Amino acid sequence: MPHETYARIDPSVRKRLSAAAIREFAAHGLADASLNEILIRARVGKSSFYYYFADKEDLFASMIESVYDSVEAQLPPFAFEGNTREGFWDAVEAHQLSVAAALGGERHGMDLFRALQPLRHSPSPRLAATFARIGTNLLAVIRVGRARGFVRDDVGEEILMRLVEGADAALDARVLPATENQLKAHLRLAHDTMRRLLEAKGDAA
Q1: 39 and 72 part of one domain
Q2: Which residue from 36, 68, 182, 194 has the least number of CB within 10 angstroms?
């Protein structure tokens, strides 16, 4: 995580650094992004950078989390107060699509998250923490769905999470959407796959 003093960095410096980092990571991904280019564009010295961040990966994860903060701020947490199976799964899909719309509204947001996806196969501890945070929405779906009887309860939450994350990783390897419409289509496919994995069998209302 960023050094605790990151919160006290001058806002204008933080703005320049974030803009430069998001642009570079969105264009080149984590591995090929140039930290030197980011620091030159942001007009930040290396000594200052390493005071706030452990390394380039730490900066990358922090930028992902910053964009995710903005997306989360635009959306209510997932909740479902109805009592029908189709209504529940429709609400899940609507929530996923609203996330896509919010992400599409962020400058370089989709490109940045696209750069994140290949890293989910073997994330470092720093990026694993980022993926875990993003996964909180899935955990909410599982818990709300179980409470209504729409999500299977024959295996534990962690296994269900891994099943869905594994399917997502396979779909991401198949196609990495570049536009908002492609992202929506991708999310609809991911939603259908998730439902098949999670849905409880039987005649629950």
Answers
A1: no
A2: 36
Q: What are phi and psi of 121, to 5 degrees?
A: -70, -35
* Beta bridge mates, 151: 199
Residues of the domain holding 32: 4-60
Tokens of 81: 């107060």
The residues, any chain, with a CB within 8 Å of residue 49's CB and separated by 6 or more, are: 17, 35, 39, 59
Tell me if 42 sits within 8 A of 16, measured CB to CB.
Answer: yes
Where does residue 187 fall: left (phi above 0), alpha (psi -120 to 50 degrees), or beta otherwise?
alpha
Which H/E stretch holds residue 126? helix 125-134
CA distance 43 to 166: 40
In a domain, 204, yes or no: no
* Sole residue written with tokens 């999670």: 198
Q: List, for residues 43-100, the tens digit of each pLDDT value.
A: 999 999 999 999 999 999 999 988 988 988 998 888 898 889 999 999 999 998 888 8
